[in-house]
Amino acid sequence: MKIFVIIGAVFTALSVAFGAFGAHILERILEPRYLETWGTGVTYQMLHAVGIILVGLLMGKLPGNTLLSWSGWLMVIGILLFSGSLFVLSITKISMLGAITPLGGVSFIIAWVLMIVAAVKYL
Prior knowledge:
Layout: H1 2-24, H2 32-61, H3 66-92, H4 101-122
Helix pairs in contact: 1-2, 2-3, 3-4
């Protein structure tokens, strides 16, 4: 599905931009632990953005596959919740935001499991 390739590519581009922002701007501002948290957000965003692109490519081979569609959308949700909460936490230092992060992690896990099921069932 073309939309997942586009969304994944946007998230990869943003991941590179956020990584550069962290390395060149935030490095001078943030404490090391918050800079590390920022880096974790960037890493997970990049990995799952590539996963979203993979979903889009697989959907080209298996059109209309709802398992893959759910996988892609759960990766999008995961990036927003997991990486997004880490980015905001890093800048604001509001530790309560850390409670949102695991929801994104669960979204990632379910997304990958759905991709596994789709591969076993349809490939």
